[in-house]
Amino acid sequence: MNFVYISPQFPKTNWEFCDRLKKNGVNILGIADIEYDQLDQKLKDSLTEYYKVSSLENYDEVLKAVAFFTHKYGKIDWLESNNEYWLAQDAQLRSDFNITTGIKADKIANIKEKSKMKKAYKKAEVPFADFSLVTTPAKAKKFVEKVGYPVVTKPDNGVGASDTHKIKNEEELKAFFENRNKDIKYIMEEYVDGDLVSYDAIIDSNGNPLFETGIFEPAIMDVVNDGLDVFYYVQKKMPEKLLDAGRKAIKGFGIKSRFVHLEFFKLNEDKDGLGKKGDYVGLEANMRPAGGYTPDMYNTMPIIQMFTKFGLIWWLLMKLEMQT
Predict the structure, then answer these.
(1) Second label for 200, Cα 20 to 30 Å away, from 31, 206, 249, 281?
(2) pTM, whole model, 2 decimals?
């Protein structure tokens, strides 16, 4: 089996996945834009071969790298970066090389554009904040008349809390339209008073969870805008309501054979149209592991030795995909 790993050096703990897969007989073929000598030795030992491109932003170069590996090792069975930034490129590469074990280019917008995520939540019957794709001040004011202040604006296709704004009055709304990036499509949402939590899982080839946990953290928008301290923790025991919402969302998105990091608000008060205090409201879907060193936190959980079992699970997912 051949697994192309895009940018395997980031984050540093990616070598763990590569190592476990390689020990299960998988060829791990790395592509990145740093010199081979700069790779951590553990990662070097975990790769079957490494191909350096001048920039991962140069699609033609990355395409040639995958073509090289295909010529040398045969058909590519799997291609992943597990990085939000590269998901669209991953999907395009799968389309170009007919790699059937992941999301292809014609479906990537469903998990990258926030407005399309709402459709999946609706299909799953998971409550979500009302929204509008605002293009003019008049359209924005009409939406505000419907939901009231405050509202939240952010790029429809964006990563993290970048360019996210909480707008509390007409003056701030005017400032937003004066200063916004006119090349970006923005989504405006009703404000939801709730604690940010997540449903994190590995989903098998039938769309069922093999491993489930979650994260509690302050809202990243508040951290960025208000300069708050950053902290979060992994929940030892998941609330049944959150498990139910996460599993419903997985079905709504139709996700199979991958990591997921789904964000929800836990309501701090009753809200018409969304639910009662303590209910969960769908926010955003990220079809990759939680960021940073969160997988290392999973690894401390007594129910799973994260990297060893994840390597085995990924290998099992590959075997299952080859049989279907």
Answers:
(1) 31
(2) 0.86
